[in-house]
Amino acid sequence: MSMKRKPLIAVVPLYDSAKDSLWMLPGYLDGLTAAGAIPIILPLHIQEEDYCQIKDSFNGYLLTGGHDINPALYNASRTDFCGDCCDARDRLESLVYKYAFADDRPVLGICRGIQLINVLMGGTLYQDIPNEFASDIHLEHHMQAPYDRTVHGIHIVHASPLEQLWHKRTKQVNSYHHQGIRTLGNDLEIMANADDGLIEGIYVPDHRFIWGIQWHPEFIYQKDTDQNRIFQKFVEACTDENNLIQTI
Q1: Which residue, of 20, 192, 228, 244, has the greatest Cβ tally within 10 A?
Q2: What is the DSSP letter of 206?
Q3: Do the Cβ atoms of 126 and 180 come closer than 8 Å?
Q4: Residue 161 preceded by cis peptide, ω within 30
Q5: 45-70 pLDDT, tens digit each
């Protein structure tokens, strides 16, 4: 008989500097599991040669939220508005993305993840939106709990992969970030902007699936079927029937 195997998705861990410990928000793992995948949390510290030994075990990669990205990665000086950074995460995610991009493996970046993708593609960031991003419209980008509710709108680019998935041009989303994309990275296309113009969704054309989104589907996917569809679309992209059918 044959058994359909589920895709394995590597998830970048969160890091608590105060406790010097790794942790994970359950929504990331539960969202992937509900969409039909098996999520596996990566070690924070791993040598490149060791990573190359395991990377082909994974069908896709989830870049999670977390610390601010070190401005040195986008050739900027750190300002007083920049929050805590985690160089170990910067190194791990740079390694993960390098090989995922080269191997055309699916990547979904959420919050910090969209920013990391943008930086690794040559883009830059606002180190603090309230102090550096000028707009006539004030939006609440850094909401307070509970996070399973919406606080601002986004405008979805016509004919973008996100419009093709949702079949709509506007949407209300949650939001929990203080940094964002300043200049768009090379070879990236915009999928969505916030009502104030801030970039909220990006993708890499001509790749199987490299998406970055600024909001947090992991907090709201159980209430919002559109957000659940993002996890489903990602998992579908990670599913290669030639590799996931095992004869037993």
Answers
A1: 192
A2: T
A3: yes
A4: no
A5: 999 999 999 999 999 999 999 999 99
Start-to-end CA span in the chain (Å): 6
46, 94 contact by CB (below 8 A): no
For residue 74, give both structure tokens.
């986008």
Average the pLDDT over 105-118 and give the result.
98
- pLDDT, average across residues 12-39: 97
pTM: predicted TM-score of the whole model, two decimal places? 0.96
| Mean pLDDT in residue range 158-179 | 98
Q: Residue 178: CA atoms inside 13 Å, Cβ hemisphere, count?
A: 13
For 51, what's the count of Cα atoms within 13 Å in the CB-facing half-sphere?
19
Instruction: Find the length of the chain.
Output: 248
Q: Give residues with Cβ within 8 angstroms of 199, minimum separation 6.
A: 180, 181, 184, 190, 192, 193, 214
Does residue 16 surpass a pLDDT of 70? yes
